[in-house]
Amino acid sequence: MNDRYLTVTALTKYIKKKLSFDPHLKEVWLRGEISNFKHHSRGHMYLSLKDEKSRIQAVMFAGNNRSLAFRPENGMNVLVRGEINVYEPMGSYQLYIQDMQPDGIGALYLAFEQLKEKLQKEGLFNAERKKEIPLYPKHIGVVTSPTGAAIRDILTTLKRRYPIVKVSILPVLVQGRSAASSVSKAIDYANHNLDCDVLIVGRGGGSLEDLWGFNEEEVARAIARSNIPVISAVGHETDTTISDFVADIRAATPSGAAELSVPSLLELKERVDQLRRRLQRAMEVERSAAEKRLHQLTKSYAFKYPEQLMKQKEQELDRLIERMSSNLKSVSRQQNERLTFLRSRLKQQHPQAEVEAKQKQLQEVTKQLQTQFQYSLGTKKDQFRSTLEKLTLLNPLDTMKRGYAIPYTNKGHVIKSVDQVTRGDEITVDVKNGTLWCEITGVKEEEN
Predict the structure, then answer these.
(1) pTM of this structure
(2) Which of 119, 272, 288, 382 has its CA 20 to 30 A from that of 236?
(3) Number of independent structural domains in the chain
C-alpha cells in the first residue's frame, strides 16, 4: 500500500517532464508588466510578469540579457519570448526569458533616454565641466572612419580655412557592435600619445541604428574623461546623440565641426591687415603730435636761453632755502614755548601730594585690618580650645586608659549588643596598648 505514495521530488520531476515535452510551452510569447525586478551580481535578471489578474515568475540569464539595448525597470510594460518550465527546488513553474522588447516604444529609443537620464544625473552634461576650444590650434585629431564622406568634408574644410594646422586621423569603426569600443579606444589613445589641441569625433548621417555607436555609455565616458577638448560631429543637423551632450561643443555636421575647430586664415589675414593699418594711422598721429611738441620746445625761452633760465632757477632755490630756514626757526620757537607752558602746568598739578594722601589713607586702613585680624584670631583660638576640651572628654582612648576596651566583629563593626555575635565567632578587642584576638565561648543576655 505504501508504494502508492510518491516523494515530492518524484512528483516535481514528473510535472517538469510533462511541461518540458509540451510543444506549446517551448516558445511562449507574453505581454506583461515587470515587478519585483532584481539584477543579480552575476548578471542574471529575476522578475515577475503580471497583468490585472495574474502573475508569473521569470528569469533571464546573463547570456540572454547581455544584448538588451535598454534597462528593464519595475512598472515597465514589455513583450517577452521564452520557455515555460519548472524550478525543481521550489516546485514552481516559471518563464525562462530568451528575448525582451519594450511594449509600445522602441528599444533603442528607450535605451537612449535611460542613458541620457543617467549621465545627466551624474553631471556629465553640465556646462561648467565643458572645456574651451583653443582659438589657434596647432594639431587636430579626427576620430572617424577613414573611408567615409565625413573625413573628406573635414579635411577639405580644414585645408580651405586653416591649411597650416597639423591633422592626425585616428581610423575607427563607426557602425556595428564594435564601433563604441573602437571610438573610445581612439579617444584614449589620442589623450595618451598625441599632442592634439582639439579632437573631432563623429561620422556622417544614417539611421538611429547606424549612429548607435555614439549613443553607447562607453563612448560617453571616454569623451567625458578626455583632457583634450572634444567636438562632436555625428550625422546631420537633426541627428542628436549622447556624444553631442557630453562633448565640449556639438557641431551640426562634420564640416561644421571643422569650421568650429579652426579660424579662417583669410579672415585672420584681413584682420592683421586692418590692425596694421590702424597701427600705421596711430603711429602717424603720434609722430605728428611729437613733431608739434618738438617745434614748440624749439621756440620756448628755455630752449633759446638755457643759461638765463638756470640762473633764475638758482635764485628761486636760494629764496626757497631761506624761507624753509625761517619756517623751521619759527616752528622750533613755537614748540619750545609750548614745552615751557606744559612744564609749568605739570609743576602746578604734580601728583606727589595726592600720592602722599593715598599713602596715609592706606596706613590707616592697614591698622584697622590688623586690629580686626587680631580680634578675630583671639576669638577663633578661644573657640578651638573649647572644642579641643570637649573632644578630650569624649576621646575613647582616654576611656581605654582607665581600663575599658572596645570590641569589634570580624567585619570591623563595634559590638554594642550580644545580638551581634554568636558562640564560636572570632572578634578583636582594642585595649590601651594593643589589640586582642578572641573567640566567643558563650553568650548571655541580661535584662536592664
Answers:
(1) 0.48
(2) 119
(3) 4
